[in-house]
């Protein structure tokens, strides 16, 4: 398997976290959180990041309940965000189950830096890391 660069997004209506990773290592690093107005980011900021990293694939976290069923509004909006990424930038996009990613991200950040590390942007980007590393794990299953 050749090494590929994969970008991930943790979609939210106020903030969208992002991370970057490599298939060869199966690890991810946080990038930045994009502010969003009712779920809509400044697309030029996202475009700048995509152009800078040139990912082979973009993974968007898909919010579901504990049974894997869609949540009322946010699941539909995350799907729409993924479709817009593909439509605007021509990148290949996959959705990935993000159950418990925020809780895991908060626990990891807290263990590294206590309460001060738990800013909204840090949590959203760490959630994108968790989503991407979970996607890598599923890739090898």
Automatic annotation (TrEMBL):
Cellular location(s): Cytoplasm
Q: Which SUPFAM superfamilies match?
A: Ribonuclease H-like
Superkingdom to which the source organism belongs: Bacteria
Q: Name one Pfam family in it.
A: RuvX
Note whether Cytoplasm occurs among the keywords: yes
Keywords, in A-Z order: Cytoplasm, Hydrolase, Nuclease, Ribosome biogenesis
Query: What is the protein's known function?
Result: Could be a nuclease involved in processing of the 5'-end of pre-16S rRNA.
Record-linked Gene3D superfamilies: YqgF/RNase H-like domain
* CDD domains hit by this protein: YqgF
List the protein's name.
Answer: Putative pre-16S rRNA nuclease
In the record, what lineage is assigned to the organism producing the protein? Bacteria, Pseudomonadati, Pseudomonadota, Gammaproteobacteria, Vibrionales
**Which InterPro entries does this entry report, sorted A to Z?**
RNaseH-like_sf, YqgF, YqgF/RNaseH-like_dom, YqgF/RNaseH-like_dom_sf
Q: Which family does it belong to?
A: Belongs to the YqgF HJR family.
Location of the YqgF/RNase H-like domain = 4-105
EC numbers on record: 3.1.-.-
